[in-house]
């Protein structure tokens, strides 16, 4: 099971290592293999290495002085009696990566074509399907790149070990709780919020969620391309590659 739990995508981390390393698997080798990838697979490899995150916005609240006014000898005299200290709150802004939005727009284009092909009519939508497609694509990308938490069902592995009648290990299967990602998936409410749609949960599940599979399929192909390239480079039997 040790080989099955290993994912060749982990080797991408060598590309951002501080030193080149020794042996067959080095930083230079990984960088070379990334450079030889097809264009879209290369972009996905680069975004996996990039620290895609949200902008951090500082909201400053100034301190507030509290005064008391007294009348002394017929004159109003103000006296400071207290002060509410100021504070700085850090709020989450937009995603800061331009590459994230390039990939999102690419996937949105594919989703939009499928929507047109199926004569899809979204709820409460005015004009083009582009914004709807972008919303669905962003749901998929965030689910891939931002980890809410580890999937408790498979303990973050994306796979479940199977046992035979005698209790011995007997292969594995993909985890259907997290779609083999190892990450806790977004709820329907979170997906609707991310996609900026005005639909019910059942409406999203039935009409919009199926289009997520288009983006998922492209990402799966890119990741499998990366795995196969790295595996060939290190002369590892491709039958051992984990396809998630």
For the record, give the distance between the C-alpha atoms at the N and C termini, rounded to a whole number.
15 Å
Query: Regarding quaternary structure, how should these chains be classified?
Result: single chain
Question: What's the number of domains?
Answer: 2
- From the spread of the alpha carbons, the general shape counts as extended
Low-confidence stretches: none
Number of helices: 8
Largest sheet: 2 strands, antiparallel
Question: How much strand content do the residues show?
Answer: 15-25%
N-to-C SSE string, H for helix and E for strand: HHHEEEEHHEEHHH
The count of strands amounts to 6
Helix/strand/pairing category: alpha+beta
Strand order within the widest beta sheet: 1-4
Helical content, roughly?
Answer: 40-55%
User: Roughly what is the average pLDDT, rounded to an integer?
Assistant: 80
Q: What's the alpha carbon Rg, rounded to whole Å?
A: 26 Å
